[in-house]
Amino acid sequence: MTLRDFINKLLGRQPASATTAKQRLQLVLAHDRSDLNPELLEQMRREILEVVSRYVEIDIEEGDVSLETEDRVTALVANLPIRRTKPLPVEEPHDEEAETDPVWTASQA
Amino acid sequence: MPVTTSGSRSILICSGKGGVGKTTLTANLGIALARQGMRTAVLDADFGLRNLDLLLGLENRIVYTAQEVLAGNCRLDQALVKHKLEPNLALLPAGNPRMLEWLKPEDMQTIVGMLRESFDIVLIDCPAGIEDGFKNAAGAAEEAIVITTPEVSAVRDADRVIGLLNTRGIKPIQLVLNRVRPKMMANQEMLAVDDVTDILALPLLGLVLEDEQVIVSTNRGEPLTLNGSSSPAAQAYNNIARRVCGEDVPLIDPAKVRRGLRAKLGRLMQTKIF
């Protein structure tokens, strides 16, 4: 809020039109920008779930991927409840590594 | 900051909304670049409503157009109209509006590719809108300059165009803010420069003040940058040309254009308090 806006508010006047213009633009652009077609969003959701479920066990039904716009940034927000983490894929650790990095071997056990 | 490449460059000049100053910018920037020694081609990609020839004062010298070049009915150099006072600048006129029926993005790429062989910079004057005309023109460009005015409709349309340019991988995309009225901005009756750059999230390539001389120059068909005019718009166009060439030229501050007590008060009133 600028000094002028503040004075206008005190005097019960309308805010300066530039302030109104900016607010209206931000609102209309949030809508314009998130104009991603639902089909593409659904496909993206499925692929994201697929990748994530390789690492953790997630609730497919509860998983939600959506677009949210705040200020001028549109964000892709994924809310994926994790049931439990999957065990790491077991690999044969190299002998040298096993010696130099005991934590690594412990996690493999 | 503008990026300079060693090879030839193709720059799209677009806005989304009509009447915000695309063609005026193309004409003035074209002349200014040519005066800096760049071999510059301006391509009128607005086949429906062409006007670039008129703003450059070349409307009576058109023999062939992009249409004849594409159809193989003439060579490129036969269609190019060289500016008599600025031989570094050549115009490739838009063809017949009926071209729109068969013109494809590949055709524009062909034309721009031909131009890039003999010019340092190709400026593409894009039609308004985001339909086929825009897509054809955008498909032939590597960089873009988006021009807008500090009005809600122009900014909204610019935002749509920027989205489309981004998905095409065109970069850099830079912004020119046209028809800036310092007094209205000081009174907060016009979107501030920062408001527009914040919303559109583009680097600012130039600010052009509202200037009656632009209308006078279009009446005559002599772009302001041609005759060394020192009017505010002429200076702005020259500065844009220097920035396009990679020079670091400071932007003007609209608040500093005005002097006196009222201007000082206006600046005070713009102070952000929270």
Question: Which terms summarize this structure?
Answer:
heterodimer; A: about 110 residues; alpha+beta; two-stranded antiparallel sheet; two-stranded antiparallel ribbon; B: about 270 residues; alpha/beta; Rossmann fold; 8-stranded mixed beta sheet; disordered N terminus
Summarize the structure.
The complex is a heterodimer of chains A (109) and B (274). Chain A has a two-stranded antiparallel ribbon.
- Give the beta-strand count of chain B: 8
Assembly level? heterodimer
> Averaging pLDDT over every residue of chain A, what do you get?
72
CA-based gyration radius of chain A: 25 Å
Order of helices and strands of chain A: HHHEEEEHH
Largest sheet of chain A: 2 strands, antiparallel
For the record, the count of structural domains of chain B works out to 1
Q: What percentage of the residues of chain A does DSSP assign to strands (E)?
A: 15-25%
Span from first to last CA of chain B?
30 Å
Intertermini distance of chain A = 59 Å
How would you describe this protein?
The complex is a heterodimer of chains A (109) and B (274). Chain A is α+β, with helices and mostly antiparallel strands. Chain A has two domains: 1-33, no CATH class; 35-87. Chain A contains five helices and four strands. In chain A, the strands form two sheets. A two-stranded antiparallel ribbon of chain A has the order 1-4. Chain A has a two-stranded antiparallel ribbon with strand order 2-3. In chain A, a hairpin with a 2-residue loop joins β2 and β3 (73-79). Chain B is of the alpha/beta class and 274 residues long. Chain B has helices at 22-35, 52-55, 66-71, 76-79, 105-118, 132-138, 152-167, 182-186, 193-200, 212-220, 232-244, 254-257, 261-269, and strands at 9-14, 40-44, 81-82, 89-92, 121-125, 143-148, 173-180, 204-209. In chain B, α1 (22-35) crosses α11. Chain B starts with 8 loop residues before the first strand and ends in a 5-residue tail after the last helix. Mean pLDDT of chain B is 92; it is low at 1-6. At the A-B interface, α1 and α2 of A face α7 and α9 of B.
